[in-house]
Amino acid sequence: MTGISFYLLTDTHYFEPSLGASGKGYDEYMKGEQMCLAENSAILKATFAKIAEDENTDFVIIPGDLTKNGEKESHKGLLRELYKLRDKGKKIYVITARHDFNDTPRGYKNDGFVPVEGTKRRELSELYKDFGYETAIAFDERTLSYVSQLNRDVRLLAINCDGETDRERGSIDGRLMEWIKEQARAAKKDGCFMFAINHYPVIPPIPVFSLVGDAKLKNWKETAETLPDLGINLIFTGHMHIQSVNEYKNKNGRTLYDICTSALVGSPAVYRRVSISQEGKVSINTLSVPDFEWDLNGLTARQYFDKRFFSMIQHRINKALSGKGVKAIGRRIFNSITLKCLGRLLFIKVPKPLKKQRLADFASEIGISIFAGDMPYTEGTPKGDLIRKTLKRLCPVIRFVERKLSKDNEPLDLTQMLLSSVGKTGNYSDNHTVINLKEEKHGYNHC
After folding, report:
1. For the segment 356-378, what is each residue's pLDDT rounded down to a tens digit?
2. Same-domain status, 269 and 309
3. Taking the CA of residue 385 as centre, how many other CA atoms within 13 Å lie in the half-sphere pointing to its CB?
4. Is 281 helix (H, G, I), strand (E, B) or coil?
5. Are 260 and 272 in contact (CB under 8 A)?
């Protein structure tokens, strides 16, 4: 197989600055928003400029949610930047997703919201014809999925499962799967290695996300069972704005690897460089968004992104606890109690260095860490052990929730789900790792 390398960035959520990003309405909206909006264009331009400097990597792949909410001007603005990057010698392949067509497009001006022109889904393949669609060797018009020949014997399967109806969104239906099977058979016949992209994660990025309907494909297990049998062992995804590398071994002993990447414009604000060698080794490296032209108030770019995410988490929790009675009590406890006080309430010994930390700050820190990947709260660490002790004390509450969440009488171990979600498990780092596809004796298509 001919080796190949590419940049992978996703969920750019590009927002055209001319649409407006200021005023009281904007400020209020941004309290609950992870992604940077006013700064978006500057972030994208800086990242594209950095990618353009690499003369040894020709390909750039973007798996969906290209714009903020399908604003026509945002598509035009992003396309201008894509053409500039193409003029630097990069071959760019994209798919679109739900934020790219008629998803409440608006600008933020005059202390409120201003409706702006949106985009119809049927327009997308024409808008992005120069970034995968026009040169595709196979195209499914209904779903906007396609196949591209990247080099002599490597093909990209670009799966688009974000249709216009709720039933179509986030699901690979039978018809689309038959089309995928047809493309996999063709790749095998032609002696080509094929890898895939899809906006939705196939494998839940963290265990607790298996309980969240929109956090992965609706029929993820069926898809994860099928793809490796077709010789498709590698898929790159986005949507959840999280860093994760996961594997799923199907009933026939074949493995699917799902590499999910965070949003480019929100904490942790990273992208990836991926190399696939002739020997089938997939090297995945994570890169931070470079410095961009914006007043960061003396912070580094990463500090700036994390600060927004930190405040967003606290805002959303406080909003969920808004009201009277139990919610009001919960809100006061969340915002004022320290880990030392929490320990007293639950009869847990809290390590001295952690006693003064507010519960609200600790919860926000955990949230940021989960989305950054390689979660550090493992057994044997002070914070990891504190989380374990807390969950043990809350066992009666957790068992009640398990009964409410369990389906079809399947046992649910919510405690283990939570622990595996805050403390990294598995064989691969979420940010820097190497996967050996040739270990897949039955799935990987040798070329």
Report:
1. 999 999 999 999 999 999 999 99
2. no
3. 8
4. strand
5. no
